[in-house]
Amino acid sequence: MKPRHKRLAIVAVVLVVIGAAAALILNAFQSNLVFFFSPSQIASKEAPVGRTFRLGGLVVAGSVKRDGVAVDFLVTDTAKTVPVHFEGILPDLFKEGKGVVAQGKLQDGVFVAKEVLAKHDENYMPPEAAEALKNAAKSNEKTAASLVTGK
Questions:
Q1: Cβ-count burial 118-142 (b if 16+ within 10 Å, e if not)
Q2: Which of 39, 52, 106, 135 could tie 80 with a disulfide, CB 3.0–4.6 Å?
Q3: Which has the minimum average pLDDT: 31-35, 82-86, 139-143?
């Protein structure tokens, strides 16, 4: 083989290896990418079915039902509510009426959480959850205003 052909073969092999490495990295990144959805987005069918994502909002007061390590509760953004099922130990700061972010999958209309995170102090709420609550409140105000004015 001529030296020129050897160099071309080496360059081709290096490009194939770099392409394969990039494909593996992008695949790993894609499978670990987790999006955030509010209860309103889940109710409007924007959330993926059968894929892991995060749900954020407030735990509805009086909705927590415990059965051993299994816990069922409702999460709301003040506009819509989503039932959540979790099996495991909840964080110490998990309380009714407080902010929560759960990671899991939607199955038959119930969000099955694999992980539940609670806020860590008085003022903290994940930015996505705060934004979702603010948007839901604006939507509720517009609906109430249209009912009052009849428009």
A1: bbeeeeebbeebeebbebbeeeeee
A2: 39
A3: 139-143
